[in-house]
Specification:
Number of strands: 0
Strand content: under 5%
Distance between the termini: 42 Å
Number of helices: 15
Helix content: over 70%
Radius of gyration: 20 Å
Shape: globular
CATH topology: Growth Hormone, Chain: A
Structural class: mainly alpha
CATH architecture: Up-down Bundle
Length: 412
């Protein structure tokens, strides 16, 4: 990679670490704050649904924001907002203020998950664009693992506030890495555009349907339930000590990071479509293993393997490439709006999963829960098989021409 690509890659990694650590910092802290604040399962879910609601609040205006003030300024602004949320969460004296802090942090992350992929897609050269976008997911998975490992080492001292402060430090480092990077060459300060009308026009509606449905399947197949609630899932499988509840989930996420790295090294050679199909098949296999684990009361180690298979499949397929598809297909002035449209279904589904997964697990049991997830994952594989195109080696203009051509053919 040239110097600019290297700097973009470093920034992508640091932003991924921040977002990943943020996602699991609360999972580790949950084991402490549940007793500290006397939380019910609904109260525990609210800590994650507050974050998920923040993601929606940040993602919805993010497309307009990156178009109005630029990709780079938006990224700096969200870091400042994240630090405000971190300060509120770390100093919280009760569950309400902790929810507020997590909501503000989530709002910043919601902006980040729109602005970062757009900035990467427009700043990296064509030959490494896919690789750097996938490195973002590698770093996110690694950040998830570090959040669990950090939780393990801090749990003995009851340091849940420090658990929540660490991603704020990572956000500052990410902002520092952005300083030498210029604004995206493709951003121009445009006047207001009817983005929604354009997204559903005949020219773009096929792509919009694809990315919106893809956003739904990414969350409905259960990835964030595994990220947020892994300690509770391991608890259901019979693990009780801090190693089983925090370190083993960390190893699951570490395996996912390795899978995403393998995808990053091969996606520009073998293509996006094979990675998606293979990854989704592995996700289904992982869910099937979990159905057997809970139905047959198998040893917890088998469940650990099932979770590893699922997360490896996700990070080598959906997790690695959803941002690539969302960022590649739209013209410059609609790229942020397109990413926001995908995230609307993605994050709304995530909000439902965050709030109700623990209640579902308690109501229908592990076997019923994972059987439902298996069915959704099978539908996701069929969706990818029928509609996902191959965009390997194509410039952004060529990818856009593909979707516009497909839309024209469908209209005829």
């Amino acid at each position: 990679m040239n110097r600019r690509d290297t700097r973009v890659g470093v920034f992508a990694v640091l932003m991924g670490l921040t977002c990943g650590y943020d996602a699991t910092a609360m999972a580790g802290a949950l084991l402490l704050v549940t007793d500290h604040f006397g939380l019910t399962t609904t109260g525990q879910g609210s800590l994650f649904s507050a974050t998920a609601a923040g993601w929606i609040a940040g993602a919805l205006p993010a497309g307009r924001l990156v178009g109005a003030i630029g990709r780079r300024r938006t990224l700096f602004a969200l870091v400042g907002l994240y630090l405000v949320g971190t300060a509120v969460a770390v100093s919280a004296g009760g569950p309400v203020w902790l929810d507020v802090g997590r909501f503000v942090q989530g709002t910043a992350i919601g902006v980040a998950i729109v602005a970062t992929p757009v900035f990467i897609a427009e700043s990296a050269s064509t030959r490494v664009r896919g690789r750097i976008a996938v490195l973002y997911q590698v770093a996110t998975s690694l950040g998830c693992a570090l959040g669990y490992f950090g939780g393990y080492f801090l749990a003995g001292g009851g340091q849940w506030r420090l658990m929540l402060a660490i991603p704020g430090v990572l956000a500052l480092v990410a902002a520092a890495s952005l300083v030498p990077l210029p604004e995206s060459d493709r951003w121009r300060r445009d006047g207001p555009r009817p983005a929604l009308r354009a997204l559903v026009s005949a020219r773009h509606r096929r792509l919009t349907f694809f990315v919106v449905a893809l956003g739904f399947f990414v969350q409905a197949t259960g990835i964030n339930a595994m990220v947020f609630f892994s300690p509770r899932i391991f608890e259901r499988m019979g693990f009780a000590d801090a190693f089983g509840l925090l370190v083993l989930p960390g190893f699951v996420q570490l395996a996912g990071a390795v899978a995403a790295l393998a995808c990053a090294l091969t996606v520009d050679r073998f293509g996006r479509r094979p990675a998606l199909l293979t990854g989704t098949a592995l996700m289904a296999l992982g869910h099937a293993v979990m159905v057997v684990v809970f139905a047959a009361d198998s040893p917890g180690v088998v469940g650990f393997v099932g979770l590893v298979v699922f997360v490896v499949g996700f990070n080598s397929g959906f997790g690695a490439l959803v941002w690539v598809f969302a960022a590649e297909g739209y013209p410059d002035h609609l790229r942020g709006a397109g990413a926001s449209a995908m995230l609307l279904t993605n994050l709304t589904t995530n909000l439902v999963v965050a709030q109700f997964f623990l209640d579902l697990l308690g109501a229908v049991g592990g076997a019923g829960t994972y059987l439902l997830l298996l069915g959704v994952t099978a539908a996701a594989w069929l969706f990818v098989f029928l509609l996902a195109p191959e965009t390997k080696g194509r410039s952004l203009d060529e990818v856009q021409a593909h979707w516009e051509g497909a839309a024209g053919a469908a209209a005829r």
